[in-house]
Amino acid sequence: xxGLNAHLAPQGxxxxxxxxxxxxxxxxxxRNAVLQNCGAVTPExxxxxxxxxxxxGAYNFQPVDELIGMASESGIAVHGHTLLWGQxxxxxxxxxMAANPGDWSVISTYMQAVLSHFGGRIGRWDLLNEVxxxxxxxxxxRNIFYKTFGPxxxxxxxxxxxxxxxQAKFLINxxxxxxxxxxxxxxxxxxxxxxxRLKRSGLPFDGLGVQAHLDxxxxxxxxxxxxxxxxxxxxxGLEIFVSELDIQEADLSVPKAVRDRKVSDEVRRYLDIVLExxxxxxxxxxxxxxxxxxxxxxxYKRRDVKGAAxxxxxxxxxxxxxxxxxxxxxxxxAFSAARIG
Length: 341
What we know:
The protein is of the alpha/beta class. It has helices at residues 4-8, 21-26, 28-37, 49-52, 62-73, 91-99, 105-118, 144-149, 153-164, 182-200, 223-235, 256-274, 326-337; strands at 14-19, 40-43, 77-85, 124-129, 169-174, 207-210, 213-215, 239-248, 280-285, 302-303, 309-311. An eight-stranded parallel beta barrel has the order 1-2-3-4-5-6-8-9, surrounded by four helices.
């Protein structure tokens, strides 16, 4: 066995990536890189509610079923992302919840259908995605679920999911937890308070997903910031998964070699920190190739004076042509150096 996952597997950890089955069908180099380097895959968009059930009762399980089939043939696990996320709710469900406050049946029907369909083929799920908002007095985001069911929708969702998948692991997945600034610091406090409250209540969940969308405009990650937060989550008995790792560059105008060194240095610094925490069980990059990165959408591309895109972000381990970059080798080194205990 070779590739990135080979260094983590003996530690009881894994390296994975977010993928789409249509991209794997069309791009043999991407498929080969996934098979060579990954112990787990996350369906990038195909497990979100709006993708699964755009029309009420008409579930589109085929893309994920196909991905599971490909993965299982190679001994690769599938990580479920995500059951409930306020930004990926089909319009019919938004309308139903807005018109029927308190009607939990729409959630229970959806969860039962999805969790029953996949059963033991998906053993770990991001059950709740991005629920924290420190601008609110109770630190909970005012998404459609909060507006329809109130703040205890979090507890109800955890309980509902466990009924349909008693053996699965369920995670709460959050972003902006990495940097030494007031915004990230407040989010770390809010997330820990939520986790502590849920654990005190005896709610059935198993772990924390840390998205880790790193950002060079925020400076460098610090051990004194990240490690105590992860250790506090681990002290609650939770497993921790870096769930969406990539990095946004600060300056796309400098030479490519300089850019790649800055990216690889920051990711290596981050990985060295998080892999010191035994409760960290997996590292998942949000894609493998720069050419397929969400950070290369129009919103993030550098533009010239006429508004044309002139460069793109280089925040993933392979370039547009699926050649490994300096970041790939930095990740390889960090994984090789990591030790449990």
